[in-house]
Known about the structure:
The complex is a heterodimer. Chain A is α+β, with helices and mostly antiparallel strands. Chain A has helices at residues 25-32, 88-95, 105-118, 124-130, 142-159, and strands at 3-10, 13-20, 51-54, 57-60, 72-75. By secondary structure, chain B is an alpha+beta fold. In chain B, helix 9 packs parallel to helix 10 and helix 16 crosses helix 18.
Amino acid sequence: MAKQAIHLTLNGKQLKVSVESNETLLDVIRDRLGLTGTKRGCDSGDCGCCTVILDGKAVDSCLVLGVEADGSVVETIEGLAQGDRLHPLQEAFLSHGAVQCGYCTPGMLLSAKALLDEKPDAGEEEVRTAISGNLCRCTGYVKIVEAILSVARNGDKGNAGHE
Amino acid sequence: MATRGTQAMSDHSVVGKRLPRLDGLEKITGATRYGVDYSLPGMLHAKVLRSEVPHARIRSIDTSEAEALPGVEAVITAKDAPDVLIGRITHDFEIFARDKVRHIGEAIAAVAAINVQTAEMAVKLIRVDYEELPAVFDPLEALKKNAPQVHELHSDALSGLHKVDGNICATRRICRGDVTQGFADSDLVVENTFRTQAAEHCHLEPHATVAVVDPSGKATVWSSTQAPFTIRDLLARSLQMPVGKIRVVSTAVGGAFGGKADLVCEPYCALLSRRTGKPVKMVMTRKEEFTASTIRHPMVIEMKTGLKKDGTLVARKIAITADCGAYADIGDVTLTYACIFAPGPYRVPNLDIQGVLVYTNQHVGGAMRGFGAIQAAFAYESEMDIIAAKLGMDPVELRNKNFLNDGDITATGQTVQWAGPKAVIDAAMQTADWVSSVDNSDPRKRRGRGLACTAYSSGVGGRADFSGAALKMNEDGSVNVSVSNAEVGQGAVTVLSQIVAEVLGLSVEDVTINNYDTDITPLDTVGAAASRTTFVCGSAAKRAAEAAREQLLEFASQILEARAEDLEIKDRRILVKGSPDKAMSVAAICQAASMRGQTVVSSSSFTTDTGRIDPVTGQGKPFEFLQYACSIADVEVDVQTGETKVLRVVSAHDCGKAINPLNVEGQVHGGVAMGVGFALTEEIQRSNGQTLNAGFTDYKLPTSRELRHIVPVIVEGYGSRGPFGAKGVGEPPIIGVAPAIANAVYNAIGVRITDLPLTMEKMYFRVSGLPEQSCKTL
């Protein structure tokens, strides 16, 4: 299969990576770039474990071809904290007990971030809708929703320094 | 969240605190390494060829084309594996089908190749010549004379090979009193049949393993497993290797729920590594998770209850037929749990419980959260509401009248201790405002409320269940604790750290849990399963910490020149009673002790005071205690479409002592969520042994939009021998959800559902009264 070079801005860094034309963005992130924080759960766009933010939108990276992402800005879980400084959503997930096995957590956090980046004061219905494509088998979503809402209610204050 | 019950004196500094989980930081930053993330240089990738037919003799297997494919390094089949039957209880399974396949999805061959794609292509090039055999898919059909025989021979750990009687894998019987007389003495006899379905664990991380066999023959296996010692034992038997030649290390586990205690990828990786001399990795696809790893046993439960006019239970005769699928796995124990819990948490003087585990050519049943008890609870708690309706009695009064209280005798002849049924049901009712009426103003969307009371226990039932723990202190006062209870998301690391920190007067940050490496960490019955981590492993860790504390105080008494009994540890400091100026930090004591060649090293274990039940009468002491739970569900049924929504579930639990209430709430939320899925949508649909919905597109898990209000209620004060009186809470939250919902549906629309799940399609027909066959998918 023919390889093709694509350019990504990944977690703020510009890079060029050579990919097969049938490779998904998930394959590229996990297998080519070694960023294993993005999880593979179903390979069919059902579970949301592989959610990344692609040009500002939360997407299932298993449903995007690597070549389709050429020229895009991609955010993965590894880019959420700024150095040692956690994103407010990460802080909230920890303090609210929104993490159990943690396998859905990266995707959940990115779906939540995409929502709050667009709508910092999102309400419960918007939060529940935004993460409805992210399955969680451990938490019943209760503390996840609480955690995201706690950040949403802080509005811009909570997101300061994370743009 | 509400906490009720007798409040123990809160003189703990760490135990009982809502501490965030200690493995949280790595999880929220994506740094956690799960099984799927493991990688070694030069690693090959494995794929397994699985049977496409439910029952067939294997005439021949041709692997030549697969072997010739560039990039393929090895292809193995049964002829490359020891000819030995294995199993967790019953031995009837081989890692590769040898002469026969018995279900779709059974492993026939495995390939190791330079990448996953090549391995997948090679698997497709393997030719299997099958002689198809008649198959049987229904356990009741399988019990009939002349039904196709799934197995000819099997064995257990003690006996040699023996003939399988019909398709009966195992039986269980529990008898007390005289049921015939009991029914004769009854004023009312109620009889119903309940059915529960096949369901899948759906841990979001699939099974994943990396194995390497070194030139000395030692196998090291990194696996996403909740039960490293179980994996080690099964591997040792299947590969005919001594256990000392196998090292199993649990990776971080992305959900388990009972599904990660079986051999899944491990034997193929180990055999292929031995063959190729290279590390081999295997990750299951989601489709394989649905078709080739274990599932929840479907059961048919026939329940006949005799009682007095005043609601006093007199007799119960219960027949349980469990479909174990093509292999036994742990089905014998699942059936035993179903039988033990089948009468419900009630005094029933006359009992006859008969269980049968039946082989079929279906997908194999295994351990899953709620393990036998969830199927039983759907039957007994539905039947309790049916009885209450017939008697015109309040369902709460009926239950309160019959609860097993301390001193009462259970089905297995055990005396109940540490039970608090009334406190639990009262706490749930108060939180749910049970007596308030539901808003039923909309004639189309009918609302109702229902409840279920269940009992379970902590620790592996029917045997002595044990954990070991080893502990050492470092020169800076920090502690390493070695245990073998995997962290599967339940919070093992945090809870065990809290227990140890409390005993040693330290902070949880001082404690590192070194977990689950069979070469290093102590032996353990089954790891993170059976709601046992806090109760059994936590007890072992507490004892090891107590032994360490004694050593530490002995060293401190020499250094501080004070009597050990005059010392206490608080906030990381060792204080001398009456001499405040003499205090030293734990770190300084450890440092000073190390200069003298003294180091704190301790180990301990904890074994439950339980054992097997008699094979003939079912009498014995399978569990240390009964722990009660009460689930109250509010539902809304659209009488035009059949759509059933769960508006709220209140779930109250006797935790003994909540070591970490934040964690307990998380367990309750997750258990209830899984229970709602089991009640409403989750069912593995099968036709002729073929799974029709092997993925999340068609197997519907509850999402954030369906699960709205889950309200945990923690009840404390009904202790146990566990650490600080704690009981496990991993499984209880799931057990009563389905019957509470079914009872709420009856309350809403007067329709009794006796077969799970309550899908929208099923509810449409039940509500409308239209014949159901018209819409069968099969």
